Amino acid sequence: MMGPAHSLSGAAAWLGVGAAASASGHTMPWPVLLAGALVCAGAALAPDLDHKAATISRSFGPVSRGLCEIVDKLSYAVYKGTKKPGDPSRSGGHRTLTHTWVWAVLIGAGASVGAVEGGRWAVLAILFVHMVLAIEGLLWRATRGSSSDVLVWLLAATSTWIIGDILDDPGNGAGWLFTAPGQEYLWLGLPIVLGALVHDIGDALTVSGCPILWPIPIGRKRWYPLGPPKALRFRAGSWVELKVLMPAFMVLGGLGGAAALNFI
After folding, report:
1. What pLDDT was estimated at residue 149?
2. Rounded to an integer, what distance in angstroms lies between the CA atom of residue 177 and that of residue 196?
3. Of 247, 223, 205, 200, which Cα lies nearest the Cα of 86?
4. For residue 98, which of 233, 14, 217, 199 has the smallest C-alpha distance?
5. pLDDT for 26
6. Which residues pair with 226 in a beta bridge?
7. 72, 97, 233, 247: which could form a disulfide with 93 (CB 3.0–4.6 Å)?
8. Phi/psi class of residue 219: alpha, beta or left (left: φ > 0; alpha: ψ in -120 to 50)?
């Protein structure tokens, strides 16, 4: 799928988690619901860091472009080193390592550890990166063109500082779900894992499929492109994505948010 659909699906997924948490007695404070939805929307773009034309690869200038090259080469090396006879030859790492459950879990766990061990500035850094991506994904029409980069960064920095201050207030969510002393913001990795997995599931619906289950072998392939029957798949950017899935994500996200806040 394309960036806007990925971001919408990520936000909708976290709002759905908020509804489930409310139903199970672990109601999210509204700042956690808001911050998590934005982080998940941003994280839903992150697996495409292996593609130089992707939103995330362009969002932070030379830094993200350089990181994209490293991730692409790493992904390609892992693909070559672990592929089975049934896996096709390829020339790059797109839709390989970063599109697996292993990558999603590692990135989410790393974010949680970083947030707990690194304190406030680590939390702000994690929030800032994902706020930039969320803005790029959700407001994509307004952020096209390199001239808008500085404005996006300023908006993300302002939002990060405000949301960070709100979350730090007692009862507003720093200790949501994980309540033991020293576990503040341990939950921050959850929307990152979810966003990456939602991205992978979205790509699995397209004609190319997605190797979500790596390194679990399926038949003669370790990088099996998981997905529904080919008749049910669509091309990225097609009318199915724009006219069916994106409106559906908006509706589901709205319903999830309303349920999470006990409005319905």
Report:
1. 78
2. 21
3. 223
4. 199
5. 82
6. 210
7. 72
8. left
